[in-house]
Amino acid sequence: MLSYQHIYHAGNLADVQKHALLAWTLRYLTQKDKPISYIETHSGRGLYQLDAAEAVRTGEAQAGILRAQREGWFGPDHPMSDVLRRVQASHGALAYPGSPLIAAHELREHDSLHFAELHPREYAALELATSAFGAKTYPQDGFELAQSLLPPTPRRGMMLIDPSYEVKADYERLPKLIAKLHRKWNVGIIALWYPVLTDGRHKPMLAALKAQGFPKAFCHEVRFPPAREGHRMVGSGMFFLNAPFGIEDEAARLTTLFQKL
Ligand code: SAM
Description:
single chain; alpha/beta; Rossmann fold; two-stranded antiparallel ribbon; 11 helices; 9 strands; binds S-adenosylmethionine
């Protein structure tokens, strides 16, 4: 049984990096009129309230998105600011969009949204948060969904893989799985989030991904203080294949901001 619940971590510094790069990429993809597909394998519930007891207990959002907003990390034209404004207008000043809701707000009517989520309670909330956007939600394993949907229609688009890494075997199986997904969908942008851990557990996975020689591979990592003393996550990484043109500039901007923490 899965025990991970993203509400404890929503809006933390890892989310800030992941969601900023996601929003930026989706804005890039929607510059052209052509429709796109967006697929997410590990969606979470889509909408979070940062004053919920779970979020307050860890204080991760306070050190993450709430600090970033106070310090003006995202200018008025940044897609993150746009999404935050719209979600907060509909759901309250402390509402925070998970990645599915960021995609739902960034994409257009003629785009396709597919979200997998295995946890029944998270799934029910996800369905509620995204149904108004015409999203298709799937209460099933995200890796299976990804394989069954590829290549998607429309063919342009992006997949986000954001596992909770509760299943430690994920670190070993992801490089092969991503290679398989890429063979089925060689034009798709595939983005994988991973934690930067003190014990270096993520490193063999990253080395295996880099060794595959994916086209337009791009990797971005930021470091930050651990959420609690002894917490093993000290940074956040995103690995892209078919990375969008210009993402290096947004990544470099984020690096500078994280270095000031
Ligand atoms: N992507 C979300 C965001 O940024 O807002 C956060 C997702 S959270 C890190 C990971 C989610 O994956 C959890 O809600 C968990 O229940 C779900 N999950 C875990 N294993 C899964 C699987 N095999 N297939 C689909 N969902 C899974």
